[in-house]
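Components:
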Amino acid sequence: MRDSKAVPAGKATLEYKGKSYDLPVFNGSVGPEVVDIRNLYGEAGVFTYDPGFTSTGSCESDITYIDGDKGILLYRGYSIDQLAAKSSFLEVCYLLLYGELPSKEQMEKFTFTITHHTMVHEQLASFYRGFRRDAHPMAVMCGVVGALSAFYHDSLDINDPRQRELACVRLVAKIPTIAAMAFRYSTGHPFVYPQNKLGYTENFLRMCFSVPAEDYVVNPVLARALDTIFILHADHEQNASTSTVRLAGSSGSNPFACVAAGIACLWGPAHGGANEAALKMLETIGTVERIPEFIRRAKDKNDPFRLMGFGHRVYKNYDPRAKAMQIQCHAVLDELGLHDDPLLKVALELERIALQDEYFIEKKLYPNIDFYSGITLKALGFPTAMFTALFALARTVGWIGQWKEMLEDPHQKIGRPRQLYTGAKQRDYVPFDQR
Ligand code: SDX
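Structure:
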């Protein structure tokens, strides 16, 4: 179990209707202090109000730290640019789940364990066949991941640490197989079983792109690029989908149902669905000449159009992942001889213009992780509809790591926000003949 590491840091005082209320303040290891309002309603009979949670800390966590003004992202204290350059996705999974970089022996054991959980129950393949071939892969992922709770009954008891651990391992191990099967089902290709001699991301590429009629050789440059892309997407503090997983988990739901809820939330175009939307936007813009028209629309309050892949709730500086994503984008396009990709030209010019535009500067709108990922994933051979499924594949470790941390917190309780009610006051029922 995990004890709180919050450090008392004095108090804040709220003056309300002639009375003063002392609210404890706590400090973390880095980042803004927090004002603890847990007892406010009980003492003052008033709620705080923060739609969208722009100023609300929902939990204490050791996993990921973001400094939006400085463009800093740390996984367990290690910066995203160092991990992207020096680590592997599976090592980052270990780090996110257990808090420390693994020793050689720990990494070998973890790799063996994950590798030997990559297959899924054979009945699950039949589950796919209930979907239309043109179902969106995220619809399939929601359904299939939720259905894991119908298959793996020995990892549903959230009060049993061993079962929690097994659920974490199963989700990290099986999510590439599930995502690859969703892709194969959409193209009409046969499912491909994992191969234990391959690494995590190599295995995924083979399950996606090999055909039974011939051998498949993984391109190491592309595998490394995708592995790095997974690192960049692995976790991101209390974003919408992670908060969804935590809220679902707080009621005691099983881990597979919680991750299915996270997948559903990630699907939205304002969140993980932005990578699919960003590529579609670049394709709609089509040429560098049409960029000013779309910049104008993005600035027009009466036009719902937004520059997908731009802006972020936390980053009011450049998203550090976007820089690393751009590096992987160039690596993949160069390896495939696509450096003249017209979409990349539009993306680079759109970024250049937007970063000089007063509106984007004033609103601190910078490219986020989704801006370059679409171009890269398309070049790797994935259809646009698979982009968010790839985001979900990588974020599964972050979701389940945050779920695990929440359940190890002895003070955790069911999440249940309140509201500002502005509806009708109590009134009596009116029979039809008197309306
Ligand atoms: C992800 O939270 C996370 O960590 C998420 C994520 C993760 O790893 O989990 O980082 C992944 O979801 C990245 C974000 C992907 N989404 C997009 O790229 C969609 C486009 N971006 C926007 O929808 C928006 O920027 C959000 C949703 C990302 C952030 O929304 P906020 O913080 O609520 O900000 P906002 O929508 O209120 O925008 C602030 C202002 C607004 O103008 P005003 O109403 O204040 O006048 O900026 C404008 C917006 O109109 N604005 C944009 C814009 N994004 C915001 N204008 C044009 N184009 C945009 N992209």
